[in-house]
Amino acid sequence: MTTIASKAILGFLLAWVAGAAPQARTQAQEGNVTTRNFGTMKDGRAVTMYTLKNTNGMTVSVITYGARMVGIDVPDKSGAFGDVLLGYGDLSGYLADTFYLGPIVGRYANRIALGKFTLNGHAYQVTVNDGRNSLHGGATGFHTVVWDAHVNAGSKDASVTMEHRSPAGEDGFPGNVSVSVTYTLDNRNELRIDYRGTTDQPTIMNLTSHGYFNLTGNPANAILGHELMIAADSITAIDSTLIPTGEMMAVQGTPFDFRTPVAVGARINEANQELKYGRGYDHNWVLERYDGSVRLVASVYEPKSGRFMEVLTDQPGIQFYSGNFLDGSAKGKSGIPYAYRTGLCLETQHYPDSPNEPGFPPVTLLPGQVYKQTTMYRFSTK
Questions:
Q1: Cα 213 to Cα 371: distance, rounded to the nearest angstrom
Q2: How open is the CA angle 193-220-343, to the nearest 5 degrees?
Q3: C-alpha triplet 226, 58, 67: angle, nearest 5°
Q4: What is the residue extent of each domain of the chain?
C-alpha cells in the first residue's frame, strides 16, 4: 500500500510539474480576477491582461497597454454569450491600431483646435495628430503607454486599478500628472469605471473610455439597427474639422434627436450639414441634469440579440460616434475586418475644445484638486 501510494503521489507531482506549473507561471487568479501575459513591448516590458468575472458569467477583459478594454462577454436574450466589444486578438493589433479601439484616452479626450490653448496667461501648443487639430491627447497620449496595475483584493466585486504618471511637457501639456482608472464589475452586470487625477501645476484634463460596441456580438454586422437613446436637448455644433463652433444646436426636428429611442441608421444619411461634417454621427451631446451626480444618460438596444446597454455618468457630455472611419483595414478578433459602421462609441466626457470655449464647463485642474469621473455601462436583455 505504501509503495502504491508513493508512486501515485510521485505521478501526481510529475504531472503537475509537466502541465500545471507552466500554466501557473503565465496565469494567476485572485478572487474573481484572472491575470495572464498578453505580450511584450519592443523595449521588453510585459503587457498583462486582467479578466474580471461576476457570478452571472459575464466577463470584462482589460490590458495594461493603454489601460484598455479588450473584451466584454455578455449573454443575449437566449442566454448565449457573445463579445460585444471590438478589439484585436493580440498585442500587435493594438500596437498598430489607429482607431482607438478600447483605450483610456487623455490627457484631453476629443479635439483641441489647432492644438493650442491658453491657461493662466500662458500659451501652450500640444501635438497635432488629426489634420490641423489635436485628438485624444496627441501623438503619445495615454492610449500608447503601459500602465501599472493591481487587483483590488479588498473589493467585494471583481476590480482592478491601473495607474500612470505623465511628466510635464509630454505632448506639450503642462504639469506632472498622476492618473488612475479603476474597472469594477459587479453581479448586476454593471461595469463601473472610476477615474482620478492630480497635478503639480495648472493643467487641463478630460479622460474617457473609447470602447466600440456592437451588441449583436458579431462585428461583421453593422450597428445601424441598434436603437439609441441620448438624454440631451442639444449638441455642440461643429465645423468642417469637427471643432465646436460654440453654438448649442437644438436637436428637436433634426437627425440628432435621440431623446426617445431611434435606430442609428434611421436618419444617418439625411441631407444635413452636421452629418456631412462628421461623415455620420461624430458629435458631442449636451447632457441633461449636469450637477456632478451619476445619472442615466444613454441606452442602446439591439433587437435581434435582445441585448440592452445603459450608460450612466456624472459628465456633462457624451460623444456618440457611429464608426464612420472604420474601413475594413483593421482585422480584429477571429480575423474579422472592422468595416464601415460596425461599431459605435459612447464616450462620456467634457465637451471638445473646452479650453478655447469659455462658455463650456471648465476642464482646468489645479494643484491640490482631484479630477474625478465615474461612468457605468449596465448590461441586460429585453
A1: 26
A2: 35
A3: 85
A4: 33-381
- What fold characterizes domain 33-381? Beta-galactosidase; Chain A, domain 5 (2.70.98)
Return d(Cα 290, Cα 317) in angstroms, integer.
Answer: 9
Q: What is the pLDDT of residues 337-364, one digit of tens each?
A: 999 999 999 999 999 999 999 999 999 9
Cell of 38: 498578453
Give me the DSSP letters along 297-328: EEEEE-TTT-EEEEEEESSSEEEEE--TT--S
Name, in order, each residue with C-beta under 8 angstroms of 71's C-beta and a sequence gap of 6 or more: 51, 59, 60, 61, 83, 85, 87, 333
pLDDT digits (tens, 9 = 90+) for 311-332: 999 999 999 999 999 999 999 9
Single-letter residue type at 304: K
pTM score, two decimals?
Answer: 0.92
**Can you read off the three cell numbers belonging to residue 178?**
498622476
E strands, 200-281, are 203-204, 208-209, 227-230, 232-238, 244-250, 262-263
In this structure, are residues 88 and 66 in contact, taking their beta carbons and an 8 Å threshold? no
* C-beta of residue 107 within 8 angstroms of C-beta of residue 166: yes
Task: Tell me the catalytic residues.
Answer: 210, 347
Residues forming beta bridges with residue 62, ordered by sequence position = 50, 69
Residue 163 burial (C-beta neighbours within 10 Å; 0-12, 13-18, 19+): middle
| Contact indicator for 67, 104 with CB cutoff of 8 Å | yes
What radius of gyration do the chain's Cα atoms show? 22
Element at 22 (helix H, strand E) = helix 21-26
The CA distance from 150 to 34, in Å, is 11
User: Cell match 474580471: residue?
Assistant: 52
Strand 282-287 relative to strand 295-301: parallel, antiparallel, unpaired? Answer: unpaired
What residue has cell string 449638441?
A: 235
Q: What is the largest CA-CA distance in the chain?
A: 86
**Residue 95 near residue 70 (C-beta atoms within 8 A):** no
Distance CA 257, CA 254 (A): 6
Torsions phi, psi of 4, nearest 5? -60, -45
> pLDDT tens digits, residue range 108-158?
999 999 999 999 999 999 999 999 999 999 999 999 999 999 999 989 999
- For residue 43, the SS3 value is coil
